[in-house]
Specification:
The protein is α+β, with helices and mostly antiparallel strands. The chain contains nine helices and 18 strands. Strands 5-7-15-12-17-10-9-8 form an eight-stranded mixed β-sheet. The chain starts with 5 loop residues before the first helix and ends with a strand. About 25% of the residues are buried.
Length: about 375
């Protein structure tokens, strides 16, 4: 990534807009483009660029630029070109100095023009009260209409942040997986009636020999319930899973469909729609020993439709959500887990007492390729 300072760019651009600064550099701290037409200056203050204000104010060690309003860009450029000064260098000072203005001395206002400088919002915005000559009628505001709807005409040559795909198979996965995939599988449990597996799971776990008040515990900030895998049925060394055949059938079907070596499982229970799951990453994104054994996560939902959401691990925290209906699967690969957090959104509807069970499987899939 080539560093291009604002001072250098002002020699040719004359004015700088917020849109002239590279968004990838400001949001992600890096730009992966080999050739990028935007300004790359790491010393620019992110908060002042993004929000037009910085809590450190004059104590900030980064640059606070007086950005020009895009609607006034051409007007300001014309004024600077027509200046009768021989000054050849523009000066931008940082917040460690007493001023953050772009210094252009001896600026003259065009004749027959009343120019009011407004420094409140964008640093250099101009309000015009012109007595327009008859031949210039209609020119004012024309630049305002010239808003480009395309930011770049260069093809994107980096991997996408996420690839969302669907496989409608019922027996075997037919889609080639890549490491940045979110995969939706709606038909693996289509041979069951709506709500049938949800009721089976509830009935079987209620009759497993461990009281519900002992078996389920609050999890992840008390946001929802999980079945405690460590508990054993009284009088034996058997796990509750041995008394819940539907749970084992679901895991076996997942393993067969994805050709997946399942390493761990979980039974999540959302009693109503006010229970939810905070945004998080699975352990493989943080623990190397888990990453060596787990590159794939599968979640299958039974009961009420809920929103599975993914939050981008960047400053802007972009969120996408996918409704997951009864019997439907959402799954994702290792790079998706590294780049995005995931969770279940809290719902606020009238029928909040309707519940949801999600069965999670973590494991290893051999045929996951790297997305180029």
């Amino acid at each position: 990534m080539k560093i291009i300072t604002v001072e250098k760019e002002l020699e040719t651009r004359l004015v700088v807009l917020r849109g002239d600064i590279c968004r990838n550099l400001m949001l992600n701290k890096i730009c992966e483009k080999d050739v990028c037409k935007y300004i790359h200056d790491p010393s620019i203050c992110f908060h002042h660029w993004k929000f037009n204000k910085c809590k450190y104010d004059n104590a900030c060690k980064k640059k606070h630029i007086n950005y020009t309003n895009k609607y006034d860009k051409n007007k300001v450029k014309k004024m600077l070109i027509n200046e009768k000064t021989n000054a050849s260098n523009d000066v931008i000072t940082t917040c460690t100095d007493t001023t953050v203005d772009v210094a252009r001395p001896n600026t003259e206002v065009p004749k027959d023009t009343k120019n009011v400088l407004n420094d409140e919002r964008m640093g250099q915005s101009y309000e015009w009260n012109n007595k327009v000559n008859e031949g210039d009628s209609g020119n004012i505001g024309r630049d305002r209409k010239r808003v480009k709807n395309t930011e770049s005409f260069e093809p994107m040559n980096r991997p996408v942040d996420v690839r969302i795909i669907m496989d409608v198979g019922k027996d075997k996965l037919s889609t080639q997986l890549t490491d940045r995939d979110i995969l939706l599988v709606p038909n693996l449990f289509a041979d069951y009636q709506p709500g049938e597996l949800y009721n089976k799971l509830l009935n079987e776990i209620n009759e497993c020999g461990i009281p519900e008040t002992e078996l389920f515990k609050l999890w992840h900030g008390d946001s929802h319930l999980i079945a405690d895998d460590k508990l054993r049925i009284k009088g034996s060394n058997n796990s509750w899973k041995e008394k819940v055949p539907t749970f084992n059938m679901i895991i076996e079907r997942i393993s067969t469909f994805f050709d997946m070596d399942v390493k761990a499982t979980r039974y999540n229970y959302y009693k109503n729609q006010s229970q939810w799951k905070p945004f998080h990453k699975d352990a493989a994104a943080i623990k190397p020993d888990k990453a060596a054994k787990q590159n794939f996560t599968v979640g299958v939902s039974f009961g009420m439709t809920r929103q599975a959401a993914f939050e981008r691990d960047t400053r802007d925290r972009t969120v996408i959500s996918i409704p997951i209906a009864d019997g439907h699967i959402y799954a994702f690969c290792n790079q998706t887990n590294n780049l995005w957090r995931h969770g279940i959104l809290q719902e606020r509807k009238e029928d909040i007492e309707k519940g949801r069970i999600s069965i999670i499987a973590w494991g290893w899939c051999k045929d996951i390729s790297q997305l180029n």
